[in-house]
Amino acid sequence: MPPKFKRHLNDDDVTGSVKSERRNLLEDDSDEEEDFFLRGPSGPRFGPRNEKIKHVQNQVDEVIDVMQENITKVIERGERLDELQDKSESLSDNATAFSNRSKQLRRQMWWRGCKIKAIMALVAVIVLLVIIILIVVKYHT
Predict the structure, then answer these.
(1) Mean pLDDT value across residues 4-10
(2) Cβ(38)–Cβ(25) below 8 Å
(3) What kind of membrane protein is this, topologically (predicted)?
(4) 44 with 50: CB under 8 angstroms?
């Protein structure tokens, strides 16, 4: 039967195990090479390599600074892009509303033009009828 494992570990379980492992690894019986990898370089025992290490560390620090600046710029660019996207969506919505309103207004104006033409035609027909009736009445009497 397989062993039972905890499905969820809390922070104390993880932190406690890391501390105890570190303590076990850094005991007095470990040699200098292990200490170097676990604790990092210490002191002047590295001699001429110490300057090289400092130089490389300075270069790494410079690269880290540049990368942090780049990340900041990318985040700012992302924020500007989000703002630009919001503005473009707003502009698109306004353009759609303007288009719908202009179509509605065009239809209203077309109907108004049709009504005016119909009224003018009706007035012309009435005027012609009055003229024809007057002519017929004048010749009939």
Answers:
(1) 54
(2) yes
(3) Single-pass type IV membrane protein
(4) yes
CB 41 within 8 A of CB 53: yes
Contacts of 30 (CB under 8 A, 6+ apart): 38
From residue 75, give the alpha-carbon distance in Å to each of 68, 70, 72.
Answer: 11, 9, 5
**44: pLDDT strictly greater than 90:** no
pTM: 0.43
Instruction: Note the pLDDT of residue 23.
Output: 61
Q: For position 39, what pLDDT does the model report?
A: 57
Which residue type sits at 49? R
CB of 52 closer than 8 Å to CB of 41: no
- Residue 31 in tokens: 């040699």
Gyration radius from the chain CA atoms: 45
Angle of helix 32-39 relative to helix 11-25, nearest 10 degrees, comes to: 150
What percentage of the chain reaches a pLDDT higher than 90?
57
With a CB cutoff of 8 Å and minimum separation 6, the contacts of 35 are 26
- Contact by Cβ (8 Å): 28, 37: no
Residue 1's pLDDT is 46
